[in-house]
User: What shape does this take?
Amino acid sequence: MNPRLQALQAYPFEKLRALLADCQPPAVRHIPLSIGEPRHPAPEFVVADISANLDKLSNYPTTKGIAELRTAIADWASRRFSLQGLCAETQVLPVNGTREALFAFAQAVVSPSDDALVVCPNPFYQIYEGAALLAGAQPHFLACHAQTGFIPDYSAVPAEVWQRCQLLYLCTPGNPSGAVMSQDALQQLIRLADEHDFIIASDECYSELYFDEAAPPPGLLQACAAMGRDDYRRCVVFHSLSKRSNLPGMRSGFVAGDATVLADFLLYRTYHGCAMPVQHQLASAAAWSDEAHVLANRDRYREKFSRVLAELDGCLDVSQPDASFYLWAKTPIADTEFARGLFDQQHVTVLAGSYLSRTVDGVNPGANYVRMALVAELDDCVEAARRIKAYCASLESAQC
Assistant: This one.
C-alpha cells in the first residue's frame, strides 16, 4: 500500500459521527446543518436537458470536454469576472466537480520532495491537505483568525516558506467563514507567485452565493486581468455548479487559467479517466448560460440568513458572512462539547470547527467555533435556530 495513505486523517464527518455515536437525542425531527450539500431544487431546464440527451449514454466522453461546454464556461467567466479574453480551447477544462479536481491538480503540478510545501488556509477544505500529502509534499497551514477577517495574514509568511511553496490553495469565499479576499490581496499573491515561482489554485466554488448584487466577490483571474495579464500565468481557478445551480449530484465544474498548466493537467486527467458524461456536459452548458435561476437561489439564501440571524441575535457570537451558505459561530464552550450537547438535547447537527482545522504551534484556529450550513428549507433553518437558542439558554442556566 502507498505509505502516504497513513498520513491522512479521518474526514471531519467521520469524526462527527464518532462524537455523536452514543447520544440519545429527543424524538423530534432531525435537522442537519453539518454538511454543505445544497438542498434547493435543481433547475427544471437542466433536468429536462439531461433527459433529452440520454441517447448520449452510448458515447464515450472526451476528457477535454465538448466545445459547447467549454465555450459556455468561457463566456460565463468572461462576463462574471470582466475578462477580456478566456480561450475556450486552451484555458478552460471541464471537471467532475471541484473536489475531484482540487485533489487531482496537486498530483499533476507538485514535484515530490522532502522540502516541497503546499500552502493553504486553516481552517480548510480537507481535500487540500490530502492532495498535498499524496502528491509528496507537506501541507503548510496559515491560520484564519477573527482579527484578520478570517483570511490568512500572508504578509507574515516567511520568505523561506514561499521559496519552498510549489502550490498555494486559496478559498474565496472561504469555507467555513465565508470571508472574501479583495482584488488587491489577490494581486499581492500573484506578485509573490511570480517572485517565488509557485502556482495558485483558487477554490471559488462559493463565488455565486453572495448578498450584495452590486458587489460580487472578485476572482483570481479577474485580479490577473486587472493587472493586464490575460495569460493568467501561474493562476488557476476552480468553479462548480453544485452551489451556484443546486446540482451537487451532477458533479460538474471547471478549471480555468494558465494554458500551460492546464495542458499538463489535461495530460494527467487523460490517464486519470475522469471525463464528464456527454449528457451532463450539455446540461452544464445550459446551466452556465442562465443567470435567472442563480439570482433566485441567492434570494432564497438571503431570506434564510436574515431569519436565522434574527433568531440567534444575542444568543451566539455570529454574523452574516461576506458570501457562501455557512455561519461560522463562536461557541461559549468547547466546539465539540457544543456540537454534542446540541445534538443530544435538540437533535440538530452542526460541525465542530476544530474538525476543520489543524493545531499549529499549540493553536487550533477552528476551536470554539461551529459551522452551520443553511442548506435546508427555510422553515427547517428557522426551527434549527430556535432550538440552538434554547440550547444556549440551557447552557446559561447551567452556569447560574
User: Anything to note?
Assistant: The CA atoms of residues 53 and 111 lie 41 Å apart. The chain has a mean pLDDT of 97. The first helix runs from residue 12 to 20. The chain has 14 helices and twelve strands.
